[in-house]
Every structure is written in C-alpha cells, then in structure tokens.
Write a structure and sequence with these properties.
Shape: globular
Cofactor: FAD
Protein name: FAD-binding oxidoreductase
Number of strands: 18
Radius of gyration: 23 Å
Keywords: FAD, Flavoprotein
Organism: Azospira restricta
Number of helices: 17
Low-confidence stretches: none
Helix content: 25-40%
Pfam families: FAD-oxidase_C, FAD_binding_4
Distance between the termini: 34 Å
C-alpha cells in the first residue's frame, strides 16, 4: 500500500511534491514570526488534482494547510511545528478561465496573482478594483480566504462584496461548482459566503467568479496635510458630500509612518512640508482627466481656505499619482525593514476613529514610555493599521514579549467603541485566542458547528481561526 507522499506524487507528479530543504520557503510566514514543519509541500495543477490530494490526506488523517502568495500577516498559511501537515500551494493554478465584459465578470483560478487579474481586466476594457500593496505576489485564493480589503473598499467593497461565485474542494474531496455570474440568486443559503474569510478552515477555494466594473477614464489624486485624525474624518465627510461615488479611495497616513518610508524606500520624497497627518485622496470617473483634476483642485482650495487642511498637492500626471500612492503602499515594507513591531488591523465606526486614537495613544504611552505609534489605513471604511514598536531595536524583544498587555489596551478599546479586532488580515494563529475574548459564546459555537459539519475530521488548516 502506498504511503501518503507516494499517493501525492502519483496524483500531481513527483516534481510537484517538495520535501526536505525544498520546503523551507513555505514553512515561514512573510513577517518571519511563525515557523512550522510539514510532511511535504504539494503543488496541484488543476481542481481534479486538488480533489485527489484532499482525498488522500483525508484517508491518511493528514492536516492540510493551504497557502497562496504567503503574504499574510496573521500566520494563517504556516503549518504548526508537528510536521504532520501537507502544505497545499495553488500557484500552478493561475489561469484566467474567462472574461465576460458584457456581464462584467471574470472567472479565474485561485493561484492567479492579483496584479495579473487587474491587468487581464484592463486588457478587456474593465476594472477589477481589488488593490493591495502586496498585489504583485498576493493570490486570489488568499484574498478570498481572508476577505481582503485594500484601498478601494470605500467605493467597490471588499473581496466578499466582489465575489459572485466559487469553486471549492470540500474536506471530503468533493468539488462544489458554484461559479455563477449572477447578481441575484435567491435560491437558499448563499454557500459561497461560508468560505470567504474562512482562511481555508472549511475547504480549498480553487476558482472564483468576480465582479468587474467599467474602467475609469479619468483619475485625480491628491495628498493633503491635516492636523489630526479628527480633521481627516472631517475631510472624508466633505469629500463624500462633494463627490459622492466618484470618491474611490481615502487613506490616512501619520507622519511617523511616512518617516519610515522616507528612511527606507529608495526614491521616496516628501511631497509637502511635515504635518502630523496626511490624507491620500483618489477620485475616478468615466469623464475627462483635466476636468476631474480641476474639480478636485477647486475643492482643495476651499479646504485650505477653511483651514480644514494646511497644504495639498494635486498629481498632474500618472507618474506623480503613482509616486504619491507609493508613499502609502510602501509603509508595511518600510516598517518591516525598520524592525519587528506589534501590529493591529482594526476597524471602527469612522466617527470613532479619532477618539480611539486619542485614548489608545495615551494609554499606551503611560504603560510603555517612549513607544512609537505607526498608524495608517483606510479612513474611508474605518480600517486602521495601528502598529507599535520601540525606537531602539534592542528594546523591541522585551516589548514584543509584552504583546498580551498591549493587545488588552488596544483591543479592549476597539471593542468598547463597537469595532473589530480584525478588519482585513484575518485571524490565523495570531488572533485565535483574542477572538474568544470578543466573540460571544453563541457566535463561537455557531462557528464551531459549521466547522464540524463541513470538516468533521478537523483536517482543514487546523489551529487557525478556531
């Protein structure tokens, strides 16, 4: 009787089953915080091969850890240290199966890199709006499994709202084909929603049908200096009143976060004189570029006249717009270079962002003198990345060891203001215990009941979320 690795080799070919040192890149997360072990890493080339892998693992009682681009921040794609797991890599499943411009849909496999999907949509004269700093390596399956957000949630919604249908290999090895390009389908439970945001704990997403949109012909981008988060929230409200659905993105960046980018990212340049906070604004429409920029310029003039901002720069070209966006998108990379930190990905009602920041900053400063707060995020949808470290690298080991105490301050305040401890990064290993503190016992039991129903052996990405 063949052992598991032999069965997997028979299913996908020996070259697509990695063992020994060849597994190393897949056993550590992007931040280098979680390291695990595995029996092997397997790379299927199609849904039938994924199904065969799952059936073989189920027969052997082997856990399965799905992994996309491995850009996650919560350890969801890293196996534990036991060495029993099979890591499932979907990178070979990278075909765009179809694009339907008239229906504004795209169907693609889970291993497609996000930037590739955006380009495929653009080539068809359409927009796929999911946009992340890691879009050059993040894969569609990972985006779906974490319900990724990104910078255009304000206008287009997060991954959940962009998804019309899924193809999923269930823990039994059966394949559910739910690839439907329908905006309306009221025929019972919306099963796809079980798998979006489940981090691979209920099944393996192998393909998806996603919404597309008309491609904008005009884009206007600006960087605005503001005095405080309260001023940023006020500017957001004014932008929404003035431009409605033309407002595509509204990002907030602290000067501390910008400083990291200026220090570590080659070519980064300060666009304005230093200010405590900045707001990055993007408008888009189907009209004329010059006309949209003129409208935004007029609006910004009123903002400065009313002292809602202290200065602003309006991009006059696509290259200038990209340079402004690079300041925002390179924050995570710059912070990684700066050194280890305690990261929080939280969401709050937009109106509560300023008071949360005031209270959290004060409480942390009292508990951890000298602390640096790196705050930035999607003010347009209430998602804040609230990251903490000490100025001296040597002090960070002790500080990171205090993460439970730090989390109590941050997460308790988030919860008190009606927020969530995970906005777009998921739960993974990092926040599994935290979830128990903020979800009600009933919510947790409902989640466990779904897990038991779909994955009675508990083999799908064990130790994550639940």
């Amino acid at each position: 009787m063949m052992d598991l690795i032999d069965r997997l080799r028979a299913a996908v070919g020996a070259a697509n089953v990695l063992t020994g040192d060849d597994m190393a890149p897949h056993l550590v997360d992007w931040r280098g915080r979680y390291r695990g072990a595995a029996r092997c890493v397997v790379r299927p080339g199609g849904v039938a091969e994924v199904a065969a892998i799952v059936r073989a693992c189920a027969a052997a009682g082997a856990p399965i850890v799905p992994q996309g681009g491995n850009t996650g921040l919560c350890g969801a794609a890293t196996p534990d240290a036991g060495g029993d797991a099979v890591v499932l890599i979907l990178a070979r499943m990278n075909r765009v199966r179809s694009i339907d411009p008239e229906n504004n849909t795209l169907t693609a496999e889970a291993g497609c890199v996000l930037a590739t999907l955006r380009q495929a949509a653009a080539d068809a004269g359409r927009l796929f709006p999911l946009s992340l700093a890691a879009e050059g390596s993040a894969q569609l399956g990972g985006n779906l499994s974490t319900n990724a957000g990104g910078v255009q949630v304000l206008r287009y919604g997060n991954t959940r709202e962009l998804t019309l249908g899924l193809e999923v290999v269930l823990p039994s090895g059966e394949v559910w084909d739910g690839l439907r390009g329908l905006r309306k389908d009221n025929t019972g439970y919306d099963l796809k929603q079980l798998f979006i945001g489940a981090e691979g704990t209920l099944g393996i997403i192998t393909a998806a049908t996603m919404k597309l949109f008309p491609r904008p012909t005009a884009v206007a981008t600006a960087w605005v200096a503001v005095a405080s988060p309260r001023a940023a929230v006020g500017l957001l409200a004014a932008l929404q009143d003035g431009f409605g659905p033309l407002l595509t993105a509204c990002e907030v960046v602290s000067d501390v976060a910008l400083g990291f980018v200026l220090r570590h990212i080659p070519g980064a340049a300060r666009p304005l004189a230093a200010s405590p906070w900045y707001v990055l604004v993007e408008l888009s429409s189907g009209g004329d570029d010059a006309e949209l920029r003129a409208r935004l310029e007029t609006f910004l003039a009123r903002v400065l006249e009313a002292e809602q901002g202290s200065d602003a720069v309006l991009a006059q070209s696509e290259a200038q717009a990209r340079a402004l966006w690079a300041l925002r998108e390179n924050i995570s990379e710059a912070q990684k270079i700066e050194g280890i930190s305690i990261k929080h990905d939280v969401s709050l009602p937009i109106s509560r962002l300023p008071v949360f920041l005031e209270q959290a900053d004060a409480a942390l400063a009292a508990a951890f003198p000298g602390l640096r707060v790196v705050a930035f995020g999607h003010v347009g949808d209430g998602n804040l990345h609230y990251n903490l470290s000490m100025p001296e690298a040597g002090d960070n080991a002790a500080f990171v060891a205090a993460q439970p105490a730090v989390n109590r301050i941050v997460h308790d305040l988030v919860h008190a203001h009606g927020g969530s401890i995970s906005a777009e990064h998921g739960i993974g290993q990092l926040k599994r215990e935290e979830l128990l503190r903020y979800k009600s016992p009933l919510e947790m039991e409902l989640m466990r009941a779904v897990k038991r129903a779909l994955d009675p052996q508990g083999l799908m990405n064990p130790g994550k979320v639940l």
